[in-house]
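User: I'm designing a mutation panel for MTH1187 family thiamine-binding protein and want to avoid disrupting the core. Could you give me a predicted structure to guide residue selection? Please restate the sequence first so the numbering is unambiguous.

Assistant: Good idea. Sequence first, for numbering, then the predicted structure tokens:
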Amino acid sequence: MIVAFSVTPLGVGEDVGEYVADAVRVVRASGLPNRTDAMFTSIEGEWDEVMDVVKRAVAAVEARAPRVSLVLKADIRPGVEDGLTSKVETVERHLARGDGRRGPMSETGLTGI
């Protein structure tokens, strides 16, 4: 499964980067495949291990902020491994064709694009 999540401290002012870094440190220390971008951190693994990391990342922010917001989206797809890489590679392959063809979204496994 892949989980994309965002942990935002509330009540700490506008600059939240140091708080978010606490959460990202937990994710990176987990050893699970992960990526962080401007909006979300994605992590891949089994249900229990991924959710444990999310819980610990929230706790890291919660330890320093009076309130925490969590946004989470999960792609639960048994049997798929390396989805963090393969999903993006599939889209890049279609983009590289440059022929303007559009296939069904099920080809990529991505939604919302």
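For picking mutation sites, this is relevant: The chain is about 40% helix and 20% strand. The helical segments are 17-29, 47-62, 83-97.
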